[in-house]
Design goal:
Radius of gyration: 16 Å
Order of helices and strands: HHHEEHHEEEEHEH
Number of strands: 7
Protein name: SMI1/KNR4 family protein
InterPro entries: Knr4/Smi1-like_dom (IPR018958), Knr4/Smi1-like_sf (IPR037883)
Structural class: alpha+beta
Organism: Streptomyces toxytricini
Pfam families: SMI1_KNR4
Distance between the termini: 39 Å
Helix content: 25-40%
Largest sheet: 7 strands, antiparallel
Number of helices: 7
Length: 205
């Protein structure tokens, strides 16, 4: 299954209605991170962009972004958090891996950090590393790319959830681009659902 097919499969269960092309300067991103990125992540950014899945997980942009209301969470900040957790929680004892190979691409509402273990010179072979907060193991590697991991997570295909929260309860899955979420907030609406929200307003949540 090609990377674009994986993203299209994900879109079948999570429509990109409220997504947007992130329009990433990939040359700048590659220079900043000193690597290419997996093709499925590039395809995801082009179709969905960075944003929130069901209000339970955020997919991170590879470059810092300035928001109209607040700056969205970034890959650099969460990568730093993941590497710090690796050192603090004894990651070397769990996995024989170089912490410099950890690159975060997402974070859950339960403070789990979704990463790549970028040890292979081919980014399309990078597995997903979950740095868990309330999971059975603090570090776990899954032999899937980012899009396939999300598809399996959103389809409830794991016998034991890789993240420490109820990510999917059988209801509708939704994705909201971070810019749309901020516009909704400014308009007095819930960033995730678009419903009127008396607590939404001029300052960030």
């Amino acid at each position: 299954m090609t990377e674009n097919v994986r993203v299209k499969a994900l879109e079948q269960i999570m429509p990109a209605t409220h997504g947007a092309d992130e329009d990433i300067d990939w040359r700048a991103a590659e220079a900043l991170w000193n690597t290419r990125f997996p093709a499925d992540f590039v395809a995801f950014m082009g179709r969905f962009g960075a944003g929130s899945i069901n209000g339970e997980a955020s997919i991170l942009p590879p470059l810092p972004q300035q928001g109209p209301q607040w700056d969205p969470p970034g890959m650099a900040e969460e990568t730093g958090n993941a590497r710090q957790s690796w050192h603090a929680a004894g990651g070397r004892a769990a996995l024989d891996a170089d912490p410099d190979a950890i690159i975060a691409w997402g974070v859950t509402g339960g403070s789990d950090i979704l990463c790549w273990l970028a040890s292979d010179p081919d980014p399309d072979r990078w597995p997903v590393l979950v740095v868990g907060r309330h999971t059975a193991e603090p570090f776990a590697v899954y032999p899937y790319g980012m899009a396939e991991f999300l598809y399996r997570l959103c389809s409830d295909e794991f016998d034991v959830s890789p993240v420490g929260l109820t990510f999917w309860d059988g209801g509708r899955l939704s994705f909201v681009h971070w810019r749309k979420a901020q516009r909704r907030w400014q308009e007095g609406r819930n960033p995730e659902t678009g419903d009127p929200d008396p607590y939404a307003g001029e300052f960030g949540p």
